[in-house]
Structures are given as structure tokens and as C-alpha cells.
Amino acid sequence: MALAHELELDLVEISPNADPPVCKIIDYQKFLYQQKKKQKEMKAKAVKVVVKEIRFGPQTDEHDFQFKLRHAEKFLNEGAKVKAYVFFKGRSILFKEQGEILLLKFAQALEELGKVEQMPRLEGKRMTMFISPKKKK
User: What residue stretches are annotated with the Translation initiation factor 3 N-terminal domain (predicted)?
Assistant: First the structure.
């Protein structure tokens, strides 16, 4: 402790359970600053997953389907996940099969760019499906 005081640094206990306890003489504020900096750097390098949504109706016609398909292709090329869903309003819930067929057709059209992460599943008035981008080689 006298040596640390003489050098105007801090005495930090590294391993208190060791016999004898291990201590180190360092500038504690500088140590904390470097730790914070490392964490910030690691956070910046982490991959952020973006989820883009595309909404269909159960009776979406071909032109609208192609239009939304092009958007999905763009999203997958940018590396974002795509959440495609069919929204059923009122009595259109009777056309569950049409919604599922539409989503499967959508997945098949995007087969080269992405893979289906979750098959179409009905949740309340929505039938959702997730498509994630394929890894680029």
C-alpha cells in the first residue's frame, strides 16, 4: 500500500481468493476508461439485425405481389430479415388457405436470396412468415 501511495497509483485486488491475495498497482480511472472503450468497440462491431415487414391481403393480385417481391429482394440483398404477413379483415379469415398459398409462393420466389426461417403460421388475424438472407460467399 505504501508503494502504491508513493507512486500515486491505486492498489487493486485482482484475486482475493488466492493464497496470498493477488494485488496490482495501477491507475484505476485509466483502467475503467479502457474497459469502457473496449465495450463500446465490441458493441459497434456487433451485427444489428433489421426486420422489414411486407403486408399482403388474402386476395393480393399479381402486380402487387411482384411489386412487393421486388422490395423484399432489395431488403434481403441489404442483409435485412423479411417478415411477410397476410392480414385478414372481417370474413376474409375464411381464406386462410389462400393466404398460406400466397406466402409459400412468396418464399419460393425468394428462394435464391433467402431461406425460410419460420413457415407460415396463423396468429390471430395474421399469418406470418420470416425469411432471412442467405450468407454471401
Answer: 2-42
